[in-house]
Design a protein that fits this description.
The mean pLDDT is about 95. This protein has one domain: Alpha-Beta Barrel (TIM Barrel), CATH 3.20.20. It is built from 17 helices and eight strands. It has an eight-stranded parallel β-sheet with strand order 1-2-3-4-5-6-7-8. By secondary structure, the protein is α/β, with parallel strands linked by helices. The chain is about 55% helix and about 15% strand.
Length: about 325
């Protein structure tokens, strides 16, 4: 069996992927035509991101185009098919209701969440792949907008909304500005993840876990070479959702030196692997695993990452046990 085939068959979950960032150029073109939006002469060029600035310009252009429930349903349906073909058993889609309200005041995020949930439900019935939604709050839009996302999460708890996240500019809008938001999220049982240590320094990670009680950290590369912070993450059992290709494209981590995810693993920190915004970074979850294999990661290390993706997910414990049993059976047979 080839390495690629073994990795494709390896049961795994993806915990850090933005729904809006999974739309392919072809699907984006169809949606733009349907919505009467202006389409670039070469839509593919929009997705050819080479740094953080080009990514921000591209994702804003795309998000401005997405406004109908069917848009998001189509994106979720397509990505779940792609994911199942890569051996993925569970996807946690990050979706930003605040961006919808910001760019499309006439749209109803609850109706959009319903459409996403319906596609997730259909995909599970068709192929067995599980998925849930994490409302990704936007730092740049402030505490009030984040509180509105909590209100919406309460309203949508029966629509597969498992938790909340926090994205945006971590330098200008620090985690400490959202303590009340995350206290409220925790009090009503919402799971919590925070983008931290991507464009900000290690203090951003400390605030995310100490003040916001984040259970997972998105990216977290600023923890590299920081043994005290790594020890705290290990003690709190906080998972780092690593996105190596994303970090290379945006410049969050250089392309020359190895990504610190192996350092984190050696420090005893749970590490999962994700594609972040795969259509814009030219990657896939399977491709991320393949890249690690090419760098010399052993099958045991790759299986460890897959295991962490299940144990660190926001799914219920019964589902986790099923996936972990499937992973154990796969490893024993291969």
């Amino acid at each position: 069996m080839s390495v690629r085939d073994w990795l494709r068959g390896l049961p795994k979950a993806e915990l850090h992927v933005h729904l809006e960032g999974t739309v392919t150029p072809e699907l984006y073109t169809r949606i733009a035509k349907r919505n009467g939006a202006q389409i670039p002469k070469d839509p593919r060029s929009l997705f050819n991101c080479h740094d953080f600035g080009s990514f921000l310009n591209a994702i804003v252009t795309v998000v401005k185009t997405l406004c109908r429930p069917q848009d998001f349903a189509d994106i979720a349906a397509e990505y779940l098919v792609q994911s199942r073909q890569q051996g993925v058993r569970h996807v946690e889609f990050m979706f930003s209701p605040a961006s919808i309200r910001h760019f499309h005041a006439e749209a109803d995020p609850a109706v959009i969440a319903t459409a996403i949930h319906e596609e997730c439900r259909r995909a599970k019935a068709a192929s067995g792949i599980s998925s849930s939604i994490v409302f990704d709050m936007v730092r740049n839009l402030g505490e009030d907008a984040a509180m509105m996302d909590i209100d919406l999460a309460i309203k949508c708890r029966n629509l597969g909304v498992a938790g909340v996240g926090l994205g945006g500019d971590e330098r200008r809008f620090p985690a400490r500005d959202f303590v009340r938001v995350f206290e409220r999220a925790q009090s009503i049982g919402l799971r919590r993840t925070v983008h931290a240590g991507e464009t900000g320094d290690s203090a951003s990670i400390v605030d995310a876990v100490e003040l916001l009680r984040a259970e997972r950290i998105g990216h977290g590369v600023a923890a590299a070479g920081q043994p005290d912070i790594q020890r705290r993450l290990r003690e709190l059992k906080v998972t780092i959702d690593a996105c190596p290709t994303s970090n290379a494209v945006t410049g969050a981590w250089g392309r020359v030196t190895p990504h610190p995810l192996e350092e984190f693993m050696h420090a005893g920190i749970p590490v999962s692997l994700s594609s972040d915004d795969p259509s814009f970074f030219g990657c896939s979850l399977l491709g991320e695993y393949e890249a690690l294999a090419e760098q010399g990661f052993s099958n045991a290390q790759l299986a460890q990452i897959a295991r962490a993706s299940f144990t660190s997910s926001f799914a219920d414990e019964k589902e986790k046990r099923i996936w972990l049993s499937e992973l154990d059976a796969y490893l024993s047979q291969t």
